[in-house]
Amino acid sequence: MSEQTPEPAPGLAIDARGISKSFGQQTALDGLDLRVPAGAVTALIGPNGSGKTTTVRVLSTLLAPDSGSVTVFGYDVVADAAAVRGLIGVTGQFSAVDQLLTGRENLALMADLHHLRRTVARERIPDLLARFELAEAADRPAMTYSGGMRRRLDLAMTLMGEPSIVFLDEPTTGLDPRGRLVLWRIIRELVASGVTVLLTTQYLEEADRLADQVTLIDHGRQVADGTPAQLKRFAPGGRVRLRFAGEGVLAEASSLFDGAEPAEDGLSLVLASDGSVSSLQRVLDTLAVHQLPVESLSVEPPDLDDVFFALTGQEERR
Amino acid sequence: MTAQAFAVSDTATMLRRDLKHALRFPMVAMSGFLTPVVLLLLFDGVFGRTLRAGLHGAALGGGYVDYVVPGVLVMAAGGVAEATAIGINTDMSEGIIARFRTMAIWRPAVLAGPVAGSVARTVLTGAAVLAVGIGLGFRPHASVLGWLAVAGLFALLGLALSWLTVAFGLLAKTPAGANSLSLIPLFLPFVSSAFVPTGAMPAGVRAFAQYEPFTPVIDSLRGLLTGAPIGADGLQVLAWCAGIAVAGFWWATTLYNRGPRTAG
User: Fold this and answer.
1) pLDDT of residue B59
2) Under a CB-based contact definition with an 8 Å cutoff, are residues B192 and B110 in contact?
3) Domain of B91?
4) I need a surface site. Which of A167, A208, A252, B185 has the fewest CB within 10 A?
5) How far is B76 from chain A, CA to nearest CA, in Å?
6) Are A100 and B24 an interchain contact pair (Cβ–Cβ within 8 Å)?
7) Which residue in chain A is spatially nearest to B110 when comparing CA positions?
Protein backbone atom coordinates (compact mmCIF):
# COMPACT_ATOMS: atom_id res chain seq x y z
CA MET A 1 0.00 0.00 0.00
CA SER A 2 2.72 2.42 0.88
CA GLU A 3 4.15 2.17 -2.61
CA GLN A 4 1.06 3.96 -4.01
CA THR A 5 1.64 6.98 -1.80
CA PRO A 6 2.44 9.99 -3.97
CA GLU A 7 4.61 12.88 -2.91
CA PRO A 8 2.32 14.68 -0.43
CA ALA A 9 2.08 18.44 -0.18
CA PRO A 10 5.11 19.17 1.97
CA GLY A 11 4.39 18.05 5.49
CA LEU A 12 0.62 17.94 5.05
CA ALA A 13 -1.44 14.75 5.33
CA ILE A 14 -4.75 16.54 4.86
CA ASP A 15 -5.42 19.80 3.12
CA ALA A 16 -9.08 20.86 3.29
CA ARG A 17 -10.13 24.25 2.01
CA GLY A 18 -13.52 25.84 2.40
CA ILE A 19 -15.55 22.67 2.73
CA SER A 20 -19.28 23.10 3.11
CA LYS A 21 -21.95 20.50 3.66
CA SER A 22 -25.65 20.95 4.34
CA PHE A 23 -28.36 18.45 5.14
CA GLY A 24 -31.53 20.11 3.92
CA GLN A 25 -31.88 23.36 5.84
CA GLN A 26 -29.21 22.41 8.33
CA THR A 27 -25.66 23.59 7.67
CA ALA A 28 -23.14 21.15 9.11
CA LEU A 29 -19.96 22.57 7.58
CA ASP A 30 -19.69 26.20 6.56
CA GLY A 31 -16.42 26.78 4.71
CA LEU A 32 -14.18 24.76 7.02
CA ASP A 33 -10.41 24.90 6.54
CA LEU A 34 -8.34 22.12 8.02
CA ARG A 35 -4.67 21.30 7.68
CA VAL A 36 -3.34 18.14 9.25
CA PRO A 37 0.44 17.75 9.41
CA ALA A 38 1.82 14.31 8.57
CA GLY A 39 3.22 12.12 11.31
CA ALA A 40 1.56 13.94 14.21
CA VAL A 41 -1.66 13.92 16.22
CA THR A 42 -4.14 16.61 15.30
CA ALA A 43 -7.20 17.07 17.49
CA LEU A 44 -10.40 18.49 16.11
CA ILE A 45 -12.31 19.93 19.03
CA GLY A 46 -15.66 21.62 19.23
CA PRO A 47 -19.00 21.38 21.00
CA ASN A 48 -21.67 18.84 20.03
CA GLY A 49 -23.12 19.70 16.64
CA SER A 50 -20.12 21.81 15.60
CA GLY A 51 -19.42 19.54 12.60
CA LYS A 52 -16.67 17.23 13.89
CA THR A 53 -18.32 13.99 12.78
CA THR A 54 -19.37 15.44 9.42
CA THR A 55 -15.76 16.48 8.85
CA VAL A 56 -14.51 12.95 9.54
CA ARG A 57 -17.17 11.54 7.20
CA VAL A 58 -16.08 13.88 4.40
CA LEU A 59 -12.38 13.11 4.95
CA SER A 60 -13.04 9.36 4.95
CA THR A 61 -15.02 9.44 1.64
CA LEU A 62 -18.35 8.63 3.30
CA LEU A 63 -19.86 11.98 2.33
CA ALA A 64 -19.10 14.23 -0.63
CA PRO A 65 -18.82 17.92 0.33
CA ASP A 66 -21.20 20.38 -1.37
CA SER A 67 -18.27 22.67 -2.10
CA GLY A 68 -14.61 23.11 -1.26
CA SER A 69 -11.70 20.79 -1.86
CA VAL A 70 -10.13 18.09 0.27
CA THR A 71 -7.01 16.11 -0.44
CA VAL A 72 -5.58 13.27 1.62
CA PHE A 73 -1.88 12.76 0.85
CA GLY A 74 -2.49 14.59 -2.40
CA TYR A 75 -5.53 12.53 -3.50
CA ASP A 76 -8.89 14.22 -3.90
CA VAL A 77 -11.53 12.60 -1.65
CA VAL A 78 -14.19 12.78 -4.36
CA ALA A 79 -12.30 12.23 -7.63
CA ASP A 80 -9.78 9.75 -6.19
CA ALA A 81 -11.95 8.19 -3.48
CA ALA A 82 -10.58 4.70 -4.14
CA ALA A 83 -6.97 5.88 -3.71
CA VAL A 84 -7.87 7.71 -0.51
CA ARG A 85 -9.57 4.57 0.85
CA GLY A 86 -6.32 2.69 0.32
CA LEU A 87 -4.50 5.05 2.69
CA ILE A 88 -6.95 5.66 5.51
CA GLY A 89 -8.24 3.77 8.51
CA VAL A 90 -11.41 4.92 10.25
CA THR A 91 -12.73 4.25 13.72
CA GLY A 92 -16.06 5.99 14.01
CA GLN A 93 -18.22 6.89 16.92
CA PHE A 94 -20.34 3.79 16.48
CA SER A 95 -18.71 0.45 16.84
CA ALA A 96 -17.67 -0.83 13.40
CA VAL A 97 -17.08 -4.44 14.36
CA ASP A 98 -19.06 -7.48 13.27
CA GLN A 99 -20.93 -8.40 16.44
CA LEU A 100 -21.57 -11.98 15.36
CA LEU A 101 -17.93 -12.77 14.59
CA THR A 102 -15.21 -13.34 17.18
CA GLY A 103 -12.40 -10.84 17.67
CA ARG A 104 -10.03 -13.06 15.73
CA GLU A 105 -12.53 -13.54 12.89
CA ASN A 106 -13.09 -9.78 12.69
CA LEU A 107 -9.36 -9.24 12.24
CA ALA A 108 -9.17 -12.07 9.69
CA LEU A 109 -12.02 -10.41 7.78
CA MET A 110 -9.99 -7.21 7.60
CA ALA A 111 -6.87 -9.14 6.53
CA ASP A 112 -8.85 -10.72 3.68
CA LEU A 113 -10.32 -7.38 2.58
CA HIS A 114 -6.85 -5.83 2.58
CA HIS A 115 -5.70 -8.80 0.46
CA LEU A 116 -2.87 -9.55 2.85
CA ARG A 117 -0.82 -12.63 2.26
CA ARG A 118 -1.74 -15.49 4.57
CA THR A 119 1.68 -15.49 6.22
CA VAL A 120 1.41 -11.77 6.94
CA ALA A 121 -2.08 -12.14 8.39
CA ARG A 122 -0.98 -15.07 10.54
CA GLU A 123 1.65 -12.86 12.14
CA ARG A 124 -0.29 -9.64 12.38
CA ILE A 125 -3.53 -10.99 13.91
CA PRO A 126 -2.00 -12.37 17.16
CA ASP A 127 0.23 -9.27 17.33
CA LEU A 128 -2.74 -6.93 17.28
CA LEU A 129 -4.74 -9.10 19.70
CA ALA A 130 -1.86 -8.94 22.18
CA ARG A 131 -1.20 -5.23 21.71
CA PHE A 132 -4.86 -4.39 22.28
CA GLU A 133 -5.21 -6.72 25.28
CA LEU A 134 -7.70 -8.94 23.49
CA ALA A 135 -5.78 -12.21 23.36
CA GLU A 136 -7.91 -13.89 26.01
CA ALA A 137 -11.20 -12.84 24.44
CA ALA A 138 -10.03 -13.51 20.87
CA ASP A 139 -12.38 -16.45 20.28
CA ARG A 140 -15.52 -14.98 21.79
CA PRO A 141 -18.12 -13.22 19.63
CA ALA A 142 -17.68 -9.43 19.73
CA MET A 143 -21.25 -9.04 21.02
CA THR A 144 -20.02 -10.38 24.39
CA TYR A 145 -17.30 -7.70 24.66
CA SER A 146 -17.41 -4.70 27.00
CA GLY A 147 -17.54 -1.21 25.50
CA GLY A 148 -13.80 -0.72 25.99
CA MET A 149 -12.92 -4.08 24.43
CA ARG A 150 -15.13 -3.37 21.43
CA ARG A 151 -13.44 0.01 20.95
CA ARG A 152 -10.03 -1.63 21.07
CA LEU A 153 -11.07 -4.32 18.59
CA ASP A 154 -12.45 -1.56 16.38
CA LEU A 155 -9.09 0.23 16.38
CA ALA A 156 -7.17 -3.02 15.88
CA MET A 157 -9.30 -3.68 12.78
CA THR A 158 -8.53 -0.18 11.54
CA LEU A 159 -4.80 -0.87 11.86
CA MET A 160 -4.87 -4.27 10.11
CA GLY A 161 -4.18 -2.65 6.74
CA GLU A 162 -1.39 -0.43 8.10
CA PRO A 163 -3.04 2.86 7.11
CA SER A 164 -0.97 5.99 6.60
CA ILE A 165 -3.56 8.09 8.41
CA VAL A 166 -6.07 7.08 11.07
CA PHE A 167 -9.28 8.96 11.81
CA LEU A 168 -10.62 8.54 15.32
CA ASP A 169 -14.03 10.03 15.96
CA GLU A 170 -14.41 10.51 19.71
CA PRO A 171 -12.32 7.42 20.46
CA THR A 172 -12.66 7.56 24.24
CA THR A 173 -16.26 8.74 24.66
CA GLY A 174 -17.98 6.42 27.10
CA LEU A 175 -14.80 4.68 28.24
CA ASP A 176 -13.80 4.34 31.90
CA PRO A 177 -10.56 6.06 33.00
CA ARG A 178 -8.48 2.90 32.58
CA GLY A 179 -9.88 2.26 29.12
CA ARG A 180 -9.06 5.83 28.21
CA LEU A 181 -5.45 5.45 29.36
CA VAL A 182 -5.02 2.24 27.34
CA LEU A 183 -6.31 4.00 24.24
CA TRP A 184 -4.07 7.01 24.79
CA ARG A 185 -1.07 4.72 25.03
CA ILE A 186 -2.03 3.02 21.78
CA ILE A 187 -2.46 6.35 19.99
CA ARG A 188 0.98 7.51 21.17
CA GLU A 189 2.55 4.27 19.95
CA LEU A 190 0.83 4.72 16.61
CA VAL A 191 2.25 8.18 16.07
CA ALA A 192 5.68 7.02 17.21
CA SER A 193 5.55 4.45 14.39
CA GLY A 194 4.99 7.23 11.84
CA VAL A 195 1.20 7.14 11.42
CA THR A 196 -0.74 10.40 11.15
CA VAL A 197 -3.70 10.66 13.51
CA LEU A 198 -6.70 12.94 13.34
CA LEU A 199 -8.95 12.62 16.35
CA THR A 200 -12.08 14.41 17.36
CA THR A 201 -12.91 14.87 20.98
CA GLN A 202 -15.11 16.76 23.35
CA TYR A 203 -12.58 16.24 26.12
CA LEU A 204 -10.24 19.17 26.04
CA GLU A 205 -7.94 17.40 28.44
CA GLU A 206 -7.56 14.65 25.86
CA ALA A 207 -6.53 17.15 23.18
CA ASP A 208 -4.15 18.79 25.64
CA ARG A 209 -2.47 15.49 26.49
CA LEU A 210 -2.34 13.87 23.07
CA ALA A 211 -2.35 16.43 20.33
CA ASP A 212 0.57 18.17 18.68
CA GLN A 213 -1.84 20.38 16.82
CA VAL A 214 -5.37 21.48 17.72
CA THR A 215 -8.08 22.83 15.45
CA LEU A 216 -11.03 24.37 17.20
CA ILE A 217 -14.30 24.42 15.27
CA ASP A 218 -17.73 25.80 15.95
CA HIS A 219 -20.81 26.02 13.72
CA GLY A 220 -18.94 24.19 10.95
CA ARG A 221 -16.16 26.75 10.76
CA GLN A 222 -12.60 26.90 12.02
CA VAL A 223 -12.30 29.15 15.04
CA ALA A 224 -8.62 28.71 15.75
CA ASP A 225 -5.74 26.36 15.21
CA GLY A 226 -2.25 25.91 16.56
CA THR A 227 -0.36 23.95 19.15
CA PRO A 228 -2.07 23.66 22.55
CA ALA A 229 0.47 26.19 23.90
CA GLN A 230 -0.28 28.68 21.13
CA LEU A 231 -4.02 28.34 21.64
CA LYS A 232 -3.75 28.92 25.34
CA ARG A 233 -2.52 32.44 24.60
CA PHE A 234 -6.02 33.20 23.35
CA ALA A 235 -7.34 32.70 26.84
CA PRO A 236 -7.27 35.81 29.01
CA GLY A 237 -5.68 34.07 31.94
CA GLY A 238 -5.71 31.29 34.37
CA ARG A 239 -6.95 30.86 37.88
CA VAL A 240 -5.79 31.34 41.40
CA ARG A 241 -6.78 28.61 43.80
CA LEU A 242 -6.93 29.40 47.51
CA ARG A 243 -7.28 26.68 50.12
CA PHE A 244 -8.61 27.52 53.56
CA ALA A 245 -8.53 25.70 56.89
CA GLY A 246 -12.29 25.68 57.47
CA GLU A 247 -15.69 26.38 55.94
CA GLY A 248 -16.17 29.56 57.97
CA VAL A 249 -13.07 31.18 56.52
CA LEU A 250 -14.05 29.96 53.06
CA ALA A 251 -17.49 31.57 53.30
CA GLU A 252 -16.02 34.83 54.50
CA ALA A 253 -13.41 34.88 51.75
CA SER A 254 -15.87 34.09 48.98
CA SER A 255 -17.90 37.20 49.86
CA LEU A 256 -14.80 39.33 49.27
CA PHE A 257 -14.10 38.36 45.66
CA ASP A 258 -16.41 38.89 42.68
CA GLY A 259 -17.01 35.75 40.61
CA ALA A 260 -15.29 33.46 43.09
CA GLU A 261 -16.32 29.85 42.76
CA PRO A 262 -16.06 27.26 45.50
CA ALA A 263 -14.11 24.19 44.38
CA GLU A 264 -15.22 20.56 44.62
CA ASP A 265 -13.19 19.83 47.75
CA GLY A 266 -15.38 22.16 49.83
CA LEU A 267 -12.37 24.03 51.24
CA SER A 268 -11.01 25.92 48.24
CA LEU A 269 -11.96 28.96 46.26
CA VAL A 270 -11.14 29.46 42.58
CA LEU A 271 -10.67 33.00 41.27
CA ALA A 272 -10.24 34.09 37.69
CA SER A 273 -6.90 35.78 37.15
CA ASP A 274 -5.01 37.23 34.22
CA GLY A 275 -1.87 35.70 35.69
CA SER A 276 -0.12 39.02 36.31
CA VAL A 277 1.85 39.66 39.48
CA SER A 278 -0.17 42.81 40.27
CA SER A 279 -3.48 40.96 40.20
CA LEU A 280 -2.01 38.31 42.48
CA GLN A 281 -0.82 41.08 44.78
CA ARG A 282 -4.35 42.49 44.99
CA VAL A 283 -5.70 39.10 46.07
CA LEU A 284 -3.07 38.78 48.78
CA ASP A 285 -3.67 42.33 49.97
CA THR A 286 -7.40 41.75 50.31
CA LEU A 287 -6.78 38.60 52.32
CA ALA A 288 -4.30 40.40 54.56
CA VAL A 289 -6.63 43.34 55.22
CA HIS A 290 -9.36 40.97 56.39
CA GLN A 291 -6.88 38.81 58.24
CA LEU A 292 -7.97 35.60 56.61
CA PRO A 293 -5.49 32.74 56.96
CA VAL A 294 -4.77 30.81 53.76
CA GLU A 295 -3.49 27.23 53.93
CA SER A 296 -2.16 27.16 50.41
CA LEU A 297 -2.25 29.15 47.21
CA SER A 298 -1.64 27.98 43.67
CA VAL A 299 -1.63 29.75 40.31
CA GLU A 300 -3.03 27.65 37.45
CA PRO A 301 -2.25 28.53 33.82
CA PRO A 302 -5.15 28.60 31.35
CA ASP A 303 -6.14 25.23 29.88
CA LEU A 304 -7.97 24.48 26.65
CA ASP A 305 -11.26 24.84 28.50
CA ASP A 306 -10.49 28.51 28.91
CA VAL A 307 -9.50 28.83 25.27
CA PHE A 308 -12.71 27.19 24.30
CA PHE A 309 -14.73 29.51 26.46
CA ALA A 310 -12.87 32.57 25.26
CA LEU A 311 -13.24 31.75 21.58
CA THR A 312 -16.70 30.24 21.34
CA GLY A 313 -18.44 31.96 24.22
CA GLN A 314 -19.65 28.60 25.39
CA GLU A 315 -19.01 26.87 28.65
CA GLU A 316 -18.12 23.31 27.77
CA ARG A 317 -17.96 20.63 30.48
CA ARG A 318 -15.88 21.86 33.39
CA MET B 1 -9.69 0.67 -10.94
CA THR B 2 -7.60 -1.62 -8.80
CA ALA B 3 -10.64 -2.48 -6.68
CA GLN B 4 -12.24 -4.28 -9.67
CA ALA B 5 -9.39 -6.76 -9.76
CA PHE B 6 -10.54 -8.01 -6.38
CA ALA B 7 -14.20 -8.54 -7.34
CA VAL B 8 -14.00 -12.32 -6.94
CA SER B 9 -11.82 -12.41 -3.83
CA ASP B 10 -13.79 -9.68 -2.03
CA THR B 11 -17.09 -11.39 -2.88
CA ALA B 12 -15.67 -14.68 -1.55
CA THR B 13 -14.64 -12.91 1.67
CA MET B 14 -18.11 -11.44 2.09
CA LEU B 15 -19.65 -14.85 1.31
CA ARG B 16 -17.57 -16.40 4.10
CA ARG B 17 -18.85 -13.70 6.46
CA ASP B 18 -22.42 -14.45 5.38
CA LEU B 19 -22.01 -18.20 5.88
CA LYS B 20 -20.49 -17.69 9.33
CA HIS B 21 -23.51 -15.59 10.28
CA ALA B 22 -25.84 -18.33 8.99
CA LEU B 23 -23.99 -21.03 10.94
CA ARG B 24 -24.05 -18.94 14.11
CA PHE B 25 -27.81 -18.42 13.79
CA PRO B 26 -29.08 -21.62 12.18
CA MET B 27 -32.69 -20.80 13.10
CA VAL B 28 -33.00 -18.37 10.20
CA ALA B 29 -31.81 -20.97 7.71
CA MET B 30 -34.00 -23.61 9.34
CA SER B 31 -37.19 -21.55 9.01
CA GLY B 32 -36.34 -20.94 5.35
CA PHE B 33 -36.27 -24.73 4.97
CA LEU B 34 -39.34 -25.56 7.07
CA THR B 35 -41.78 -23.15 5.41
CA PRO B 36 -41.73 -24.76 1.95
CA VAL B 37 -41.85 -28.24 3.50
CA VAL B 38 -44.99 -27.30 5.44
CA LEU B 39 -46.41 -25.78 2.27
CA LEU B 40 -45.75 -29.01 0.40
CA LEU B 41 -47.39 -31.12 3.10
CA LEU B 42 -50.33 -28.73 3.15
CA PHE B 43 -50.97 -28.71 -0.58
CA ASP B 44 -50.35 -32.40 -1.11
CA GLY B 45 -51.83 -33.83 2.07
CA VAL B 46 -54.70 -31.40 2.79
CA PHE B 47 -55.81 -29.81 -0.48
CA GLY B 48 -54.28 -32.32 -2.91
CA ARG B 49 -57.17 -34.74 -3.28
CA THR B 50 -59.78 -32.00 -3.72
CA LEU B 51 -57.66 -30.03 -6.17
CA ARG B 52 -56.97 -33.13 -8.22
CA ALA B 53 -60.68 -34.07 -8.25
CA GLY B 54 -61.65 -30.53 -9.23
CA LEU B 55 -59.22 -30.60 -12.10
CA HIS B 56 -60.51 -34.03 -13.23
CA GLY B 57 -56.93 -35.12 -13.56
CA ALA B 58 -56.73 -32.96 -16.67
CA ALA B 59 -53.27 -31.61 -17.45
CA LEU B 60 -51.92 -33.44 -14.42
CA GLY B 61 -49.61 -36.30 -15.17
CA GLY B 62 -49.55 -38.59 -12.16
CA GLY B 63 -50.51 -37.65 -8.61
CA TYR B 64 -51.02 -34.08 -7.47
CA VAL B 65 -47.62 -34.22 -5.79
CA ASP B 66 -46.04 -34.54 -9.24
CA TYR B 67 -47.81 -31.36 -10.24
CA VAL B 68 -47.17 -29.30 -7.13
CA VAL B 69 -43.47 -29.96 -6.34
CA PRO B 70 -42.10 -27.53 -8.97
CA GLY B 71 -44.46 -24.83 -7.67
CA VAL B 72 -43.30 -25.33 -4.09
CA LEU B 73 -39.68 -25.26 -5.30
CA VAL B 74 -40.23 -21.77 -6.68
CA MET B 75 -41.95 -20.63 -3.49
CA ALA B 76 -38.96 -21.96 -1.53
CA ALA B 77 -36.67 -19.71 -3.60
CA GLY B 78 -38.95 -16.76 -2.79
CA GLY B 79 -38.83 -17.59 0.92
CA VAL B 80 -35.03 -17.72 1.00
CA ALA B 81 -34.84 -14.40 -0.87
CA GLU B 82 -37.24 -12.85 1.64
CA ALA B 83 -34.90 -13.82 4.50
CA THR B 84 -32.01 -12.30 2.51
CA ALA B 85 -33.87 -8.97 2.22
CA ILE B 86 -34.39 -8.85 5.99
CA GLY B 87 -30.76 -9.85 6.60
CA ILE B 88 -29.40 -7.09 4.34
CA ASN B 89 -31.68 -4.50 5.89
CA THR B 90 -30.49 -5.43 9.39
CA ASP B 91 -26.86 -5.58 8.30
CA MET B 92 -27.00 -2.07 6.79
CA SER B 93 -27.76 -0.59 10.20
CA GLU B 94 -24.54 -2.12 11.60
CA GLY B 95 -21.47 0.07 12.04
CA ILE B 96 -19.28 -2.35 10.11
CA ILE B 97 -20.98 -1.36 6.83
CA ALA B 98 -19.61 2.18 7.28
CA ARG B 99 -16.17 0.61 7.71
CA PHE B 100 -16.57 -1.36 4.46
CA ARG B 101 -17.48 1.89 2.70
CA THR B 102 -14.18 3.45 3.76
CA MET B 103 -12.10 0.51 2.51
CA ALA B 104 -10.52 0.01 -0.89
CA ILE B 105 -12.59 -3.04 -1.79
CA TRP B 106 -14.82 -3.93 -4.73
CA ARG B 107 -17.88 -2.13 -3.41
CA PRO B 108 -20.64 -4.44 -4.73
CA ALA B 109 -18.98 -7.30 -2.80
CA VAL B 110 -20.79 -6.10 0.34
CA LEU B 111 -24.02 -7.11 -1.44
CA ALA B 112 -22.71 -9.87 -3.72
CA GLY B 113 -21.47 -11.93 -0.74
CA PRO B 114 -24.92 -12.23 0.84
CA VAL B 115 -26.44 -12.84 -2.62
CA ALA B 116 -24.02 -15.74 -3.20
CA GLY B 117 -24.94 -17.08 0.25
CA SER B 118 -28.61 -16.70 -0.61
CA VAL B 119 -28.19 -18.67 -3.87
CA ALA B 120 -26.42 -21.45 -1.93
CA ARG B 121 -29.27 -21.57 0.60
CA THR B 122 -31.81 -21.56 -2.25
CA VAL B 123 -30.20 -24.61 -3.85
CA LEU B 124 -29.97 -26.46 -0.51
CA THR B 125 -33.58 -25.65 0.34
CA GLY B 126 -34.63 -26.81 -3.13
CA ALA B 127 -32.83 -30.11 -2.61
CA ALA B 128 -34.64 -30.52 0.73
CA VAL B 129 -38.03 -29.84 -0.90
CA LEU B 130 -37.26 -32.42 -3.60
CA ALA B 131 -36.26 -34.98 -0.97
CA VAL B 132 -39.48 -34.46 1.00
CA GLY B 133 -41.45 -34.54 -2.26
CA ILE B 134 -39.91 -37.86 -3.19
CA GLY B 135 -40.84 -39.12 0.26
CA LEU B 136 -44.46 -38.13 -0.51
CA GLY B 137 -44.46 -40.04 -3.78
CA PHE B 138 -43.01 -37.54 -6.25
CA ARG B 139 -41.36 -39.50 -9.04
CA PRO B 140 -39.18 -37.30 -11.25
CA HIS B 141 -37.84 -38.92 -14.40
CA ALA B 142 -35.35 -36.43 -15.64
CA SER B 143 -32.19 -37.38 -17.49
CA VAL B 144 -28.77 -36.40 -16.13
CA LEU B 145 -28.85 -33.46 -18.50
CA GLY B 146 -32.34 -32.62 -17.31
CA TRP B 147 -31.21 -32.59 -13.68
CA LEU B 148 -28.34 -30.28 -14.58
CA ALA B 149 -30.78 -27.98 -16.35
CA VAL B 150 -33.09 -28.04 -13.30
CA ALA B 151 -30.19 -27.15 -10.98
CA GLY B 152 -28.96 -24.40 -13.30
CA LEU B 153 -32.38 -22.86 -13.81
CA PHE B 154 -33.16 -23.01 -10.10
CA ALA B 155 -29.85 -21.37 -9.16
CA LEU B 156 -30.47 -18.66 -11.76
CA LEU B 157 -33.93 -18.08 -10.29
CA GLY B 158 -32.34 -17.82 -6.83
CA LEU B 159 -29.81 -15.30 -8.18
CA ALA B 160 -32.54 -13.16 -9.77
CA LEU B 161 -34.79 -13.18 -6.70
CA SER B 162 -31.87 -12.52 -4.34
CA TRP B 163 -30.63 -9.44 -6.21
CA LEU B 164 -34.19 -8.14 -6.40
CA THR B 165 -34.84 -8.64 -2.69
CA VAL B 166 -31.42 -7.22 -1.75
CA ALA B 167 -32.59 -4.04 -3.49
CA PHE B 168 -35.82 -4.27 -1.44
CA GLY B 169 -33.71 -4.69 1.69
CA LEU B 170 -31.74 -1.52 0.85
CA LEU B 171 -34.84 0.43 -0.14
CA ALA B 172 -36.83 -0.32 3.02
CA LYS B 173 -36.19 1.73 6.15
CA THR B 174 -36.91 -1.13 8.56
CA PRO B 175 -36.65 -4.94 8.50
CA ALA B 176 -40.46 -5.06 8.58
CA GLY B 177 -40.58 -2.90 5.44
CA ALA B 178 -38.08 -5.19 3.72
CA ASN B 179 -40.28 -8.13 4.65
CA SER B 180 -43.43 -6.50 3.21
CA LEU B 181 -41.78 -5.74 -0.14
CA SER B 182 -40.49 -9.31 -0.35
CA LEU B 183 -44.02 -10.65 -0.08
CA ILE B 184 -44.54 -9.64 -3.72
CA PRO B 185 -42.24 -12.32 -5.17
CA LEU B 186 -43.33 -14.67 -2.39
CA PHE B 187 -47.03 -14.52 -3.26
CA LEU B 188 -46.86 -14.12 -7.04
CA PRO B 189 -46.50 -17.89 -7.54
CA PHE B 190 -50.02 -18.35 -6.12
CA VAL B 191 -51.34 -16.63 -9.24
CA SER B 192 -49.31 -18.79 -11.61
CA SER B 193 -49.28 -22.39 -12.72
CA ALA B 194 -47.78 -23.41 -9.34
CA PHE B 195 -50.84 -25.03 -7.76
CA VAL B 196 -53.43 -25.29 -10.56
CA PRO B 197 -53.02 -24.96 -14.33
CA THR B 198 -53.68 -21.42 -15.54
CA GLY B 199 -56.36 -22.87 -17.84
CA ALA B 200 -58.48 -23.61 -14.77
CA MET B 201 -58.56 -19.95 -13.67
CA PRO B 202 -61.20 -17.26 -14.43
CA ALA B 203 -60.45 -15.35 -17.62
CA GLY B 204 -59.05 -12.13 -16.07
CA VAL B 205 -56.77 -13.87 -13.63
CA ARG B 206 -55.74 -16.36 -16.30
CA ALA B 207 -54.38 -13.61 -18.56
CA PHE B 208 -52.19 -12.36 -15.72
CA ALA B 209 -51.12 -15.83 -14.62
CA GLN B 210 -50.12 -16.84 -18.13
CA TYR B 211 -47.80 -13.92 -18.64
CA GLU B 212 -46.24 -13.42 -15.21
CA PRO B 213 -42.65 -14.67 -15.02
CA PHE B 214 -43.21 -17.46 -12.50
CA THR B 215 -45.48 -19.43 -14.84
CA PRO B 216 -42.88 -20.12 -17.55
CA VAL B 217 -40.25 -20.83 -14.86
CA ILE B 218 -42.51 -23.32 -13.08
CA ASP B 219 -43.65 -24.91 -16.36
CA SER B 220 -40.02 -25.36 -17.40
CA LEU B 221 -39.02 -26.92 -14.07
CA ARG B 222 -42.07 -29.21 -14.21
CA GLY B 223 -41.32 -30.21 -17.77
CA LEU B 224 -37.67 -30.93 -17.03
CA LEU B 225 -38.53 -32.96 -13.91
CA THR B 226 -41.56 -34.94 -15.02
CA GLY B 227 -41.43 -34.85 -18.77
CA ALA B 228 -44.71 -32.91 -18.88
CA PRO B 229 -45.08 -30.62 -21.89
CA ILE B 230 -43.10 -27.47 -21.11
CA GLY B 231 -45.27 -25.07 -23.07
CA ALA B 232 -42.78 -22.30 -22.45
CA ASP B 233 -39.92 -20.96 -24.43
CA GLY B 234 -36.58 -21.75 -22.76
CA LEU B 235 -35.16 -18.49 -24.00
CA GLN B 236 -38.06 -16.56 -22.55
CA VAL B 237 -37.42 -18.17 -19.15
CA LEU B 238 -33.73 -17.35 -19.27
CA ALA B 239 -34.52 -13.80 -20.36
CA TRP B 240 -36.89 -13.27 -17.41
CA CYS B 241 -34.37 -14.58 -14.86
CA ALA B 242 -31.35 -12.80 -16.34
CA GLY B 243 -33.36 -9.60 -16.74
CA ILE B 244 -34.52 -9.59 -13.13
CA ALA B 245 -31.00 -10.46 -11.92
CA VAL B 246 -29.37 -7.62 -13.89
CA ALA B 247 -32.07 -5.09 -12.97
CA GLY B 248 -31.86 -6.14 -9.31
CA PHE B 249 -28.05 -5.84 -9.34
CA TRP B 250 -28.21 -2.40 -10.92
CA TRP B 251 -30.94 -1.20 -8.55
CA ALA B 252 -29.20 -2.62 -5.45
CA THR B 253 -25.75 -1.21 -6.25
CA THR B 254 -27.27 2.18 -7.12
CA LEU B 255 -29.05 2.28 -3.76
CA TYR B 256 -25.87 1.18 -1.97
CA ASN B 257 -23.70 3.78 -3.70
CA ARG B 258 -26.17 6.51 -2.89
CA GLY B 259 -24.62 6.33 0.55
CA PRO B 260 -25.60 5.79 4.12
CA ARG B 261 -29.25 5.97 5.00
CA THR B 262 -28.82 8.58 7.72
CA ALA B 263 -27.52 12.07 7.12
CA GLY B 264 -25.92 12.74 10.53
Assistant:
1) 54
2) no
3) 2-257
4) A252
5) 26
6) yes
7) A113
Query: What is residue A3's predicted lDDT score, i.e. its pLDDT?
Result: 44
- Picking from B134, B145, B8, the residue whose alpha carbon sits closest to that of residue B73 is B134
Question: Which residues are within 8 A (CB) of B113 and not within 5 positions of it... i.e. 6 or more apart?
Answer: B10, B11, B12, B13, B14, B15, B16, B17, B18
B13 part of contact set with chain A, CB < 8 Å? yes
**pLDDT of B2:** 57
d(Cα A175, Cα A177) in Å, to the nearest integer?
7
Looking at the domain assignment, is residue B242 inside a domain? yes
pLDDT tens-digit map of B48-60: 777 777 776 555 5
**Shortest Cα distance, chain A CAs vs residue B119, angstroms:** 21
Average pLDDT rounded to a whole number, residues A286-292 = 86
How far is the C-alpha of B199 from the C-alpha of B176, rounded, in Å?
36
Q: Say if B263 falls within a structural domain.
A: no
Interchain contact A50–B (C-beta under 8 A):
no
Which residue in the set B21, B99, B259 is minimally distant from A100, CB to CB? Answer: B21
Helix (H, G, I), strand (E, B) or coil at B7: helix
Asked if B96 lies within 8 A of A97 by C-beta distance, the reply is yes
- CA nearest neighbour of A77 among A152, A85, A187, A184: A85
Q: What interface predicted TM-score (ipTM) does this complex get?
A: 0.85
Each domain of chain A, given as residue ranges in start order, spans 2-232, 238-301
The pLDDT value recorded for residue B232 is 60
Q: Does B100 touch chain A (CB under 8 A)?
A: yes
- Assigned CATH for A2-232: 3.40.50.300
Domain count, chain B: 1
- The answer to whether residues A21 and A70 touch, using CB atoms and an 8 Å cutoff, is no
Domain membership of residue B102 (yes or no) is yes
Quick: pLDDT tens for B146-184.
899 999 999 999 999 999 999 999 999 888 888 888 888
Q: Which residues of A touch B20 (CB under 8 A)?
A: 100-101, 105
Cβ pair B20:A96 closer than 8 A: no
Arch. (CATH architecture) of A238-301: 2-Layer Sandwich (3.30)
Give the whole-angstrom CA distance, residue B77 versus residue B73: 7
